[in-house]
Design goal:
The structure is a homodimer.
Chain A: E1 2-5, H1 10-21, E2 27-30, H2 41-44, E3 54-56, E4 62-64, H3 66-76, H4 87-104, H5 110-118, H6 123-144, H7 160-174, H8 183-192, H9 196-199
Parallel strand pairs in A: 1-2
Antiparallel strand pairs in A: 1-3, 3-4
Chain lengths: 210, 210
């Protein structure tokens, strides 16, 4: 398999963790987002959104969107499962993942921040915007799992919720958010730090890290 | 079941279509988003994000995030299926749905547009922002299904892709986007118009419509 990504892309980071947890290896192809390499015609041909990640499998398998890729990996490589079996628990895990992937992350991604600059906002306002999105989003996530014993977001093994949380916490810190306000999220993050699959997927461990 | 929503919320609209397709009825509870009713303490107690929709089922079942709710409905009420059986096709359908739910929609929702106004952008700039997000997002969606015969987004029956597309096209029109540029998306929308489940879920058909 080939994973088209970028070391600092949180969506790519989620998929890297999933591949590692499943014990799968993939050739990592880097597309430098700040240089706009994700909009090169040959990349747009496989990912018309011009976003990372894209996972290319055997034959003509081309998968886009991090959560769709992760659910595909989970459906085709069963161990260890990244979602619980019970439909209600699955829905809770997915809702947490989507609170990050559908509400928080898209509002503070590179493309949106670039567009804010084009509209004339100052660098301080743009960083403030990203911090606002992270603070609001993580604050809701903290409440979503307040009643969960853990230590992971949901139970004693990582799920797609943790795969979304860890990269997002890294983003939040980068934008100056005080993550100490989210003790339950930090507890889940601490649990993931014990796992090589998470450590190996970290941005600073990638060959394209700057 | 009780569906907490708002007539014009696209995420609520997706769930209304899913309920109708599954032949399920729910009591609709409206939360007026422009009046901030979604941030009332009693609503935040069931949905800490302060977003709609929330689906309350029997007992203490509380589900948030439209795509998680729809997948739960699909896993607990099998007919008609809203996702194909084949893992690769499922991933393609989910990726299309997420291109809307994780990339397009969140960037132009009420909360984000309100924050743009707070930062001093003019009404024209705010509408321009929403139109930009819709044009970029739908343009990518058009390419994602360019090779699909249809008539729905994927095949001859509606999937979660169509459930996300129809509300988003309504948004795009509201922001003045010329949707004629997306013939394949319009073909899918036309197919959904033949189905009562879609027609009955339309914003203008809801009791709280203004």
């Amino acid at each position: 398999m080939k994973l088209h990504g970028y070391f600092r892309s949180s969506a790519s980071y989620r998929v890297r963790i999933a591949l590692n947890l499943k014990g799968l290896s993939a050739e990592h192809l880097s597309h430098h987002l700040r240089k706009g390499e994700q909009r090169a015609p040959e990349y747009l041909a496989i990912n018309p959104q011009g976003l990372v990640p894209t996972l290319q499998g055997d034959g003509d398998i081309v998968l886009t969107q991090s959560l769709a890729i992760i659910e595909w990996l989970d459906e085709t490589h069963l161990q260890p499962p990244l979602l619980p079996k019970d439909p209600l628990r699955r829905a809770q895990v997915r809702a947490f993942a989507q609170a990050i992937a559908c509400d928080l992350h898209p509002v503070q991604n590179l493309k949106v921040l670039a567009h804010l600059r084009e509209l004339g906002l100052s660098e301080e306002q743009v960083t403030g915007w990203a911090a606002w999105a992270n603070r609001e989003g993580l604050s809701a996530c903290e409440k979503l799992i307040a009643g969960e014993a853990g230590p992971f977001c949901f139970g004693d093994a990582p799920t797609i919720a943790d795969l979304c949380l860890v990269p997002q916490l890294a983003n939040a810190r980068r934008f100056g958010v005080d993550v100490a306000a989210f003790p339950r999220l930090l507890k889940a993050e601490a649990a993931t730090k014990q796992l090589k699959a998470f450590a190996d997927a970290a941005p600073e461990r990638q060959p394209d890290a700057e």
